[in-house]
Design goal:
With 185 residues, the chain is of the alpha+beta class. The protein has one domain (6-174): Beta-clip-like. The chain has helices spanning 40-51, 125-130, 153-162; strands at 6-10, 16-20, 29-33, 36-39, 59-61, 66-69, 81-82, 88-93, 96-101, 112-113, 117-119, 145-149, 173-174. The strands form five sheets. A four-stranded antiparallel sheet has the order 3-9-8-13, with no helix packed on it. A three-stranded antiparallel sheet has the order 4-6-5. It has a two-stranded antiparallel ribbon with strand order 1-2. Helix 2 (125-130) links the parallel strand 11 (117-119) and strand 12. It is globular, with a radius of gyration of 16 Å. It starts with 5 loop residues before the first strand and ends in an 11-residue tail after the last strand.
Length: 185
């Protein structure tokens, strides 16, 4: 697994991390987040039981239907850690995910993007604690769970319909969720 822009090695705080091999210009596409493409239901089947105790999964939820499970067929992108004040963004394009530098990154810096785990009305303080953030940035919100609440699928769809608002799909959208944090309890 060789990437032109970064190397994966152990990161003091959180296991492995990805570190810039050289100075990287803002906007540079560093890697595609790949893996097995599965449905949201399948990802729940795979990880719901053990997920509560172990959130060390490599899931990226692209949209309501598509989840990438980098445990299978994933590349080095799965070692890029979370930060609340990240130097990379996860960009979704045509339902594929790319990690791009959102500012100039210096050689040796650790790469990170905001995982923004989905927060639903069911997300609890315990969920927040389970996904405690250790990014250490002054902007740290204390948890990897997103600050914003995502409404459950059906209600959100209904709401959108009643307002006659069509969710305009941007060609380039920032990833909103890496994976689900709410475990439907
Ligand atoms: Zn943080």
């Amino acid at each position: 697994m060789i990437n032109n822009y970064f190397v994966v090695r152990s990161s003091g705080v959180h296991g492995k991390g990805a570190f810039a091999r050289k100075n990287i210009r803002k906007g540079t596409r560093l890697v595609e987040y790949i893996g097995e493409n599965i449905s949201a239901e399948e990802s729940d089947r795979r990880y719901d039981d053990t997920g509560v105790k172990n959130h060390h999964t490599f899931l990226f939820s692209v949209d309501k239907r598509k989840v990438i499970d980098a445990t299978f067929g994933g590349n080095e992108s799965r070692f890029i850690n979370h930060s609340c004040d990240p130097n990379c963004d996860a960009i979704i394009e045509k339902r594929r995910v790319y990690i791009e530098a959102n500012r100039t990154i210096r050689k040796g810096e650790e790469l990170a993007y905001d995982y923004n785990y989905e927060r639903t009305p069911k997300t609890t303080n315990a969920d927040e604690r389970m996904y405690k953030c250790l990014c250490g940035s002054p902007e740290c919100r204390g948890t990897i769970v997103s600050a914003k609440v995502t409404m459950p699928k059906k209600k959100a769809a209904k709401k959108a319909k009643s307002k006659k608002k069509v969710a305009g799909k941007n060609k380039r959208t920032k990833a909103k969720t890496k994976k689900k944090a709410g475990r439907g309890r």
